[in-house]
Structures are given as structure tokens and as C-alpha cells.
Sequence to fold (1094 residues):
Amino acid sequence: MSWLRRPSEAPLWQDEFSVFTADERYVNRRQFTKFLTLTSFAMLAGNLWILARSIFYRAPKYAPLAVAALGEVPVGAVKLFAYPSPRDPCILVRPADDTYIAYSQKCTHLSCAVYYARAQNRLECPCHQGYFSITDGSVLQGPPQRPLPRVALETRDGKLFAVGMEGERT
Amino acid sequence: MFGMEFYVDPSRCIGCQSCLKACEECETHRGVSMINFDFVDRADSIATAAYVCWHCDNPTCAQVCPADAIKKYEDGIVGSSLKPRCIACSNCVLACPFGIPKLVPEYEQMMKCDMCYDRTSVGKRPMCATVCPSQALSYVTPETIAATRREKPVNTFWFGEQKITTKVFMMAPAATDAISIDVADYIWEGEHELAPQAF
Amino acid sequence: MAKTPLPVAELTSRYGPHLNYTPPGGWQDESRNAAEKLVKTHCCFCGQQCGIQLKVRENRVIGFEPWEDFPFNRGMLCPKGVKRYLQGNHPDRLLSPLLRTEHGFQPSTWDEALDFTARRLREIQDKYGKDAVAVYGGASLTTEKAYLMGKFARVGLGTRHIDYNGRLCMVSAGVAYKGVFGVDRSPNPWSDIAKAEVVMVIGGNIGECAPITTDYIWRARDHGARLIVADPRFTPIARNADLYLPVRPGTDLAMLMAMLHVIIRDGLADREFIAAHTTGFETTAASVAEWTPERAAEISGVAPEAIERAAHWIAESRRSMLMHARGLEHQSKGVENCEAVAAIALATGNIGREGAGCVMITGQGNGQGGREHGQKCDQLPGQRSLSDPAAREYVAGVWGIAPDELPAPGYSAVEIMNAIHRGEIKGLLSICFNPLVSLPDANFTREALERLEFFGVIDFFLSETAMHADVVLAGSLQEEEEGVTANVEARVIHIQKAVEPPANARRDSEIICDLARRLGRERYFPFREPREIFDELRLASRGGIADYYGITYERIDREKGVFWPCPSSDHPGTPRLFENGKFFHADGKARFMKLEWRDGGDPVDAEFPVYLTTGRVVSQYLSGTQTRRIGALVDQYPEPKLEIHPRLAAQFGIQTGDRVTITTRRASITLPAMVVRTIRPDTVFIPYHWPGGRSANLLTHRTLDPRSKIPEFKVSACRVARESA
Fold:
């Protein structure tokens, strides 16, 4: 530790226990208690701010994205897209003739890409056999703890648009 | 701080002990006087001397205190022992070359002059120097001393090999630079440095 | 009958002195609660009258704070001033009047006590005549009260016997200066001391009796001044003396006359000044013609060369300041001694200029003011003479009586005690005086007190003298009543009231006025407040030498004191007298006096071969009634010691601490010895602040200076011996 000190001829104990109040590095009880109290208050304030933030939270609005034209995707097939940003992989599934549904493709367990198992009509994750319901993305089996986030879809002028992520609190 | 310094001139002392009486009337150590007062040798002389703590630049008392109970504050005043820390070991009493600290057995604590810190820290003058009728103890600006006294304020003392510089000044004959009490310091020994004195 | 009602020891254990060490509530009290107010006032003790601020809370004085703005002492104080506040809230404080019974003193009501006092005074005057009662006043009273006592004696009681304890203090200097200069006052303000080139202190233990004056003298030396000290003892002020003159007690006149002799012989006299501003120089020159330094050396023990040097230093400087105190004045030649000092100042032209003059160092708090306005046996307000028809007419007019109703001059203080002793005076009313401790020959004083048919005392502690009283009226401390005093330089200053008198004690002036009412003299004493007394005093002093007419409390507060004479409200006051050689006699000139040597009243001989001199210590004040009750001051010097030189001590095998019996022609006492080289080998010294068996005044004698009537405290003959085991 000696390299941390200012160069001095005096022995270490003299620097540590300086008789000059100007050189003292010790804090006294009062200073320490003040420090604890102030830090405590700071933490409380921080937590209150976080609480306030979450109470007054508004869901972010994303720009709509054209995913596919109606009829473009055959029944039982999928189309992959990215929404809301290029780094968010999503999967559009047409399980029935007039049913289109889309989810985030990132498995909520460890973010492996889920695929549509057509025979079982569900979304499956190959990594740890996590299965998700196609109707609402809830977990059917496996290690995932949270349902798959669902992409809100809207039909406009014969096209399917992704307009938001459902499940994000409003 | 506030531009005034403490000057001691024992040759002016008339032995009235007003300093002792006023010291114990202060706001901090009520009822206990911190002045060191002596009849130098009453059988042969009426000479008396009163001293306050010299508030050394590197206080010996503080350096030897095992409990870190004596502190020198940023304005140069060396405080009396801190009550929670002092263990009444008398190390400082023995170590001080001027013999200033006193052990007060009833309080189990060393007590010494703190230059009326309750007064000097707010720009008032210490009790002893305010009341001293002969101004043997004086608390004035250096300009006043230079303008009114023929003696020279000196704050360097040699005790054998130990050089002590102090915040409080001793009035000495003009042209004195340091006060040395060891005769050896005045002996010519070839290259050995003589203690300067007025010739 | 004024024997003490109980043995003194029993009265002492009941009424003190007990030692008070701590402020009200103890040392910790004030640290928690601050003072409510700071009262700017002055010390209650000596004539320096240092400015001081008293800390007051809940009607109690709890401490002090220096008053750095008051110009005389600039915050400085001696130990007595620092601790004076411990007189308040004292267990010994008299809280109600006391009446004497066979079982000791009993508290009484004011009506009882005052009616009793008035009745007894009346009875004695009816039976034996108006002059069978006497009044003692004091020089630590405010000027208002000093004036009141003079008026009370003459107009209230109609007696001619009124005198005061200042008779033991300033009268030698007073008579001398009155005769030489025409006025009894220090001619120079104290600031002149620091401007002098030569300062001579003769008979003044400045370091212990006027400590604040030390700084003035040290500052003079800082500017290169030389200091001459003449004293049988080497006192603290002498430690920086350039010339020390170890004058034998009682022989100062020889030395001073020799100095005059040298000044004339060596052509150092200021002939121009003498011719223009003085008369009678030839008289003094003739007086000192035979007083060579050699002759003076034989008598005084001061070397001829030292006398020559002192004379030359003083005469060759245009700024010489000569200062004297009781050492010079407590002698049967006290007046001559002061006349000689004044003659040196006049002969060398060292008077009436900055840094040049001669001053007496007034000892008591209001020694100056208390000797100006009628408290003296021959004086009327304004420092007027009671024998002067014009003065009598004026003052009688102010008082509303016919001039011939004013009595003739009466006895001085010691003479009053002599008259009591021989039965001529039967009744005594006393305030601010403790004669059993302060008058010489204490056994005589006690016998006299025991012969009084009535003795009434106004005091705040039961002093040793008050133990003999028939009635003790509980009076006020200095901080309990407003008034003015005049300090050593005749600066009139304001004493502020800080607290009310406690319990059933009353202000002194109220007591006197109430007593006057009960004597049927109400219309002459209508005063309700000290201010009213002061206003009458101003009028009564108007046109007199000590003219206070232009002084008001408000002016004093604004100007930090006003020097008299001050004849009108636009007059600035008179700090320095005799400027331009104008003196107070009708012809405007100062007078040189005839100086004649005579022997003292208690000569040394084979049986009593040693000189005894008495004096003071710095921690005690006068008879000690107040300071012997303050613990810290008693601890500083607890009991009187006999100072004796090793050569004299060796003759009797005495060492420090041995108990030594000192015997004079009057009595013997035994004290511990203090063997020191700082005193003449033919002289011993005892401080006089203690009563009873330790009282120095048991040993002293009642010889008075014939003109001033001051006792010769400083010169007695004694012998010493180790106490036989």
C-alpha cells in the first residue's frame, strides 16, 4: 500500500494518525453517521423515483411495419420479420385460413429462435424443448417462465401491419 | 487568523496573577486556570513570569500522545486534550519542553491553554492578554508590536538538539534570532554553528 | 454599649468572612445559558476605576467581560477586578437590617431599624448636644452618596463631625496640592505618563496597588523613558527601574530636599518659569540650602551619587513625571513630602505640559470624587472650604438653609475616634469604613468603639467594626446603585446599576434619605433616584474648584468620562491642569513652601531598633471586608507574612516560615516570616488587610500629620524575635 502515500520521511503511523487536523483522513462518528444517513436518503429517493416512474409509465409507440400482403403466406406457413427494430426477430404464422398471428421469435428462456411446429400447431424452441401456445404465446411446457411477446397486427389496405408489442403495460 | 498574534514578555510581568483569575473565567474550562505562573526566585527577587501554551508548529505533546488526543488546528492553535480520547498517561506533561500541559487528576485529563479558542476563533482576544495590566501577555497585530516595542519577537527555540518553532512569540533583545538555553550553543567549536545572539 | 454581642469567633462563623469561589449556580451554569445583558460599568475597588462589563442574568451578576473601548484601561484588569463579581450572591451578604440583642444580631424590619437609629441619634443629641454624634463616610461611595453624607451630617443631624476613610488616604497630597497649586487633583491625565522621558515613582507600589498604571510606565520606557523608583522595598514596578533608591522609611523628605539642593546648586532650575508662574521660591531654596546629598544619604540610606543622578535626570528633561502614593503620604511629614515633590516639578518647569507633571495616585475607588463634595470635616461641595463665608452662603442657598445653620469644621477621622475614646462623642453612624482594621492602634479603636452609647453601621457584609454596632442597616453593593465616581485623573465616570439589591437590602442613598425623613428633615432629602442627587450636587459645586455643573450622565456615557472642572454643558472638561502656567490661586501662581525636617512620631531606639512599614498585596483591597470573602483572591495570598531581609533574619535565627513576634510600643502580634532580599535590612513589612490577631494596625501608632491629620502608617518602631516555642 505504500505506493498510495505521498512521499514522506515520517513513519506510516505518523501519517495515519496525524496531529494536524488539516492532514487527518479519519472521519469521526458524526461525519460517518451523516454519511450513512445521507446515502440512505439517496437510496430512498432513488427507489421512490423508480416507483414513480413505473406508476406513470407509458408504453413506447413504435412505427408500424408492413409485414406481408394478405394471402402472401400460405396456410400453415410462416414468415420471419424484424420488429420493432432490426435486432428484434419476429415470426408471423398463418395457422388457419383467416388467422394470422405473430410473436417475437426470441424464446423467453434464453433467446433461441422458436419455430412453428405445424403438426402440433404450436411454437417450439429447439434448445430446451420449450413449447408455446400458438393462440396466446403462453408457455405449454419447458423452462421458459414468461409467455412469448405477441406482435399486434392490423390489416390495412390488404396488407398486414405490425403496430405494437402486446403485453407491454400501458 | 484575524491578523493578531500572541506575544510574551516576562520582563514586564508584575506578578499580579490577573491572567490566572481571568483564564478560569473563560467559557470552556470554567474554574480551572491554564496559565503557568512562577515566582522565579522570590527569596532573591520579585521577578515573576506567566506563560501560556506556546502552540508549537510541530507540537511535541501531540506527537507523543498515544491516544491521538491532542490536535493542532488549521489556524495553528494546539488544542487541549480531547476528552473522549485522553487517558491521563502524562506523556505530554513529561515531553513538553516548556512544561505547559498539566494533568488534572479530578478529571483524569490533561488540560492546557487553548488560547481561549472560544474567543480567538471568532476574532476576540484571549482572556489573559486582554486583562494583563502590564501587557506581559499581549495579543495584538505584528504591526503594533513592531511599532511600539523595542524588543524583537522570536519564535525559535533550541532545546539541546531539538529545534522548536512556535506560534506564540517570546519578546527578546533586538537582533536575537532564536532562543537557546544550552551554554554549549554559545561555545565556539570551529565549524559548529553558533546560536545567534545580540552582541 | 458597643461591645460585640457575641464573641468575635462566633460572629465570624455566622457572618463570615466565608469564601465564595463560584459564580451563582456553579461553574457549569453559565456555560449552558448566556448572559441576558452586559452592563458597561467600572470596578468597585481602587482609584484606577477600570472599565469592565458585568454579565447579568436573572438579576444576578454571573461573570464579567473586558470593556476594551474604555480608554483608561482598554480591557485590562487586575485580579480583584476579575473576581469582584463574586461579592454578589454571597452567603455572608446582609439581606435585612440587624438589631443587636443579648443573643447576637437579630433580623428586623426597616421601620424598626430606622426608627431605632433615628431615636437613638436624637436622644444622644438632646442629651449631650448636637456634636455628640459623628458621621463616618467613605471614599468608595459614589460621589452622590459622598455628597449626601456631608449634607446629612450638617443638615440632617446638625453635627460638625463628619469625616471619611479617605482621611487615611489622600489628605496629605490634598493639603499639599491645595497649598501649592490651589487645587486638590492630579494635574495630568494618565496618558501623559506614557509620554514622559523620566518617570519617578516614590512611595508607590504600582504593580500591586495600581496595576493598570504599569502599562503606562512600560510604554514610557518603550519610548526610551527612564524609570526611578524610591521605596524601602524592591516592589514589582522596580524590576525595570533604571535607578532604584532604597529610602529608609520616613526619610523621603531628606532625599527630596537634597534633590532640590542639587537642582539649585547645579543651576538646573527653570528660572524663567519660576519667576513667571510661582512665588516663594526663595523660601524653599533657603529650606534646602543645608541639605546636601551627603547629609541626606546619612539619614535616608540612599547613596549621594544616586540622589545626584535622580535630580539631574529629572531636571535635565523637559518631560519629567513625578508620581507618588501612600508610601510618601502616610507619614507625619506627609504634607511636606508632597510639597517637596511638587517643588521639584515646579523648580524644573515640569508641570502643565504633555508628559510633564506630578501626580498623586489616588487609592480608593472614589478617593477623588469622595474628597470633593463635603464629606470631609472642613469641606463643602465643589471642593470649597467650610470656613469660607462666600462658600457657606452659596451652598446654604442651594440647600435651602441659613448660612449660620451650617456647622463649623469638626474633627477628622482619627480625631473622631480619639474623641469617642475620651467620651466626648457618644454616637456614631458609619458607612463604607472599617476603622477597627484600617485605623492605627487597633486596641485603642476597639476600646473607643466599646464606649459608644450608640453605633449604627450601613454595610453589605458584617465587617469587624460592624460587629460592635447596635444596628446594622443592610446596604448596597456598587453594582446595585447608579452614580458617578472620579478616577485617579479626575475623570468623572458613570457607575451603572446592574442588579437590584437582594432580598431586604436597600440602596444606600434610600437608607440615608429615609433616615433623614425620620429625623424630620425630609424637605432637604427628597431624592428618589441618584440622578436627582447628582443634579443637586452639580448645582452645589457650581462655581467651586471642583465644578461639576456641565457634567451629566449622558455626557459621561458619550465622551467616556468628563474631566472636572467642567463649568458648563458646552465645556469639554479639563484633562490637564496648569497649562501655560495658570494655577488655581487668586494670583494664578503656584507657591513654593517652607520645608522643614522633623522626626517621626514613633522613633526607633535601642528597645525598638527595627523600622516597621505596612502596605498592601495585589490580591486584597483595604480592610479586606470584600476581598477576604472571595476564594480565589484569598488563595493567592492567604495570610499576612512578615517580610524581612536575610541579614536581619540571621541575627535572630529566623527562616522563611518561622513564626516571628513583632512588638511595638502598642502591641505584639505573631506572623510567619518571609525572608527576602527585596527589602531594606533595617525594615520589616506587613500587609494590613487582616483583622484581629493578624492585624498590622494593632502595631501602628496614632501620630498624625499636623496639617492633614493622616496617620503615620508607614513608619513605626518595632523589634522582632522568633516566637518562643
The mean pLDDT of chain C is 96. Residues 8-87 of chain C form a domain with the Phosphorylase Kinase; domain 1 fold (CATH 3.30.200.210). Chains C and A do not touch (no CB pair under 8 Å). The longest helix of chain C spans residues 110-128.
